[in-house]
Amino acid sequence: MKKILPVLLVLVLLATTITGCGGGGNGGEGGTDSEPFKVGAIYPLSGANALLGNQCLTAVKIAVDMVNEAGGVHGRQVQLIEADAPDPTAATTEAGRLVDQQGVEIIFGSLASGNAIAIAGVTERTGVSLVESGGVADALTDSGFKNVFRILDKGSLRGATGANYVGTAIADMLGIAPSDLRVAIIHEESSYGTSVADGAEAKAIELGMNVVAREHYATTITDMSALVLKINEAKPDVLLSVNYINDAILLVDTLKQYNAVPKVFMGLGAGTTDPNFAATIGADSDGFFCTDMPTNLPLDVFKDEEMRATVSAFREAFLEQYPDLLNVSIAAEAAFAGAYTFMTEILPNAETLDPESIREAALTTKLDMTTLGFGWDLGDDGQNYAASANINQWQGGEVVTIYPEKLKNGDVINVPLPIASE
User: Which phi and psi (to 5°) does residue 90 adopt?
Assistant: First the structure.
C-alpha cells in the first residue's frame, strides 16, 4: 500500500481533477517521465444508469487524485480522460476515441457488462488494459481477452452465492426443507442477467430446490404484468431476481399491484443494490435481499493501518460530493477499488508500462486484501478468483451486510416479507 492522501487534500484535488485531452501514444512504452500517464474512464454518465455511472466516475477521480499526490505512476502524473457510454454502441465508439485519439493506456469501467464486453473488443485490438469493476457477465473473462482484468466476482458465482444462501439459510428461516422450497427466477436477458441467472439456477438444482419458473425480458420492458402473473401461477416461496434499476422498480411495483410478492425476494446485484431502489420503494424495501460485492465494511475489517486510512479518506471524500447519501454506493466502492488497486499495487510491479509488462504484473501480483475486503488473485483469463459476493439486505434505507459472518454488520429481518402475499 502506497502513501495515503490526507482527506482534506483529497477534497481540494477533486475539484481540480485533470480531464485533459491531447495526443500521446498507446500500447507502447508509455512516454517519458515528463509526460502524463493517460488513463480513461468509461461509464454511463447519461441514460438509465447515469446515477451510478457518475458516482463511479467520482470514485475513479478520487483514486487518481490520491495516486498523483503520492507521486503518480512510475514517476508520472496520471491524467484522467472521461467518456460517456450509455450503451454498448457508445462504449465501442468512446473506447476507440480514448485509445486512438487521446492515447490512453488503461481504461477503467464500465458498470454494465454489455459495455465492458464492447470496450474489451477495442482494448484487445490495441493492447490497452481494461480494468473492470462493474460488469460481471461470465463472457467478459471467458472469451480469451488478454488485456481484461476484473477485480470483482463473475456473474455465475454471484448467482450461485445468492441461491446457496437461500438453500442453506433462508429455507431454515422459513421452516421449509430445501427439497420443498419453491424458487422462481426472473432476469433481464443480456449477458449480465443470463450469467447470474444461470449460476443461480445451477446452484438451486444442486441443492435440491424446486425451480418452478424462469422468465427473462428485455430491459426496455414497460409492462411486466404478464411475467408477474406467470410467476405467481408457479407459487414460488422465493424469487431470485436479476435486474437493472428501472426494471427492478417496475418488477416490485407490479408484484405489489397483483398481490404477488413472494415470501422472500433475493436480488442478485445491480438494480436491487442501487440507492434508488430503496429510495423509490420506500419502507416496503425493508427485508429485500441483494447479493453483491462487499459494501461499507466496518473499518476494523481492514487490519492494515494505511489501507484503513485509505478507505476512510475515500468514503469521506466521496460523501462530500454526495451529501444526501448515507453511505457510498457499492458501484462506487468497486470503481475506486479497481482504479486504486491497479495504480498503487499492480502498475508499480510492472517493469515498464507496455502491455506485456502490465499483464504480467496483473497476473503475478497476489494481494490478501483490497479496499473491497477481498484479495487480488487473477487467473490467466483475467478473473479475480479471490473476489466474493456478500448477502446484503435493505434495512431502513441502507444496505446491511448479513453474510458472511466475519463481515456482517446487521441481522436478518422480515423473513417472510411483511408485504408478501397470503
Answer: -65, -35
Q: Where are the beta strands (DSSP E) in 231-305?
A: 238-243, 264-270, 289-292
Q: How confident is the model at residue 422 (pLDDT cuts 50, 70, 90)?
A: low
| CA geometry: angle 252, 257, 263, nearest 5 deg | 55
Hunting for cell 495504480 — which residue is that?
A: 343
pLDDT band at 32 (very low <50, low <70, confident <90, very high): low
Q: Which residue reads 475489517 in cell numbers?
A: 301
- As a whole number of angstroms, the distance between CA 43 and CA 138 comes to 19
What span, in angstroms and rounded, lies between the C-alpha atoms of 143 and 258?
41
Distances in Å between the alpha carbon of 410 and those of 148, 327, 398? 35, 15, 11
Q: Which residue has the cell 482504479?
A: 339
The three-class DSSP label of residue 117 is helix
9 φ, ψ (degrees, to nearest 5): -70, -35
Residue 419 per-residue DSSP state:
T
Percent of the chain whose pLDDT exceeds 90: 82
Q: Are strands 37-43 and 238-243 parallel, antiparallel or unpaired?
A: unpaired
Spatial CA neighbour of 136 closest among 161, 110, 113: 113
What grid cell was written down for 12?
A: 481540494
Q: Per-residue DSSP letters for 223-252?
A: --HHHHHHHHHT--SEEEEEE-HHHHHHHH
CATH architecture of 7-153+298-388: 3-Layer(aba) Sandwich (3.40)
Task: State how far the alpha carbon of 97 is from the alpha carbons of 23, 35, 40, 93, 101, in Å.
Answer: 11, 20, 10, 6, 5
pLDDT at 13: 43
- Specify the pTM: 0.87
Structure confidence by residue, pLDDT tens digits, 409-420: 899 999 999 999
Give residue limits of the domains in the chain. 7-153+298-388, 156-292+391-407
Question: For the chain, how far is it from start to end, CA to CA, in angstroms?
Answer: 53
Whether omega before 404 lies within 30 degrees of 0, making that bond cis, reads yes
Helix axes 330-341, 305-321, angle to 10 degrees: 130
> What does the block give as the cell for 182?
419453491
The C-alpha atoms of residue 133 and residue 149 are separated, in whole angstroms, by 9
Question: Cell numbers 429481518 correspond to what residue?
Answer: 413
Single-letter code of the amino acid located at 264: V
Contact 166, 266 (CB under 8 A): yes
CATH code, 156-292+391-407: 3.40.50.2300
Find, among 335, 370, 365, the residue nearest to 64 by Cα. Answer: 335
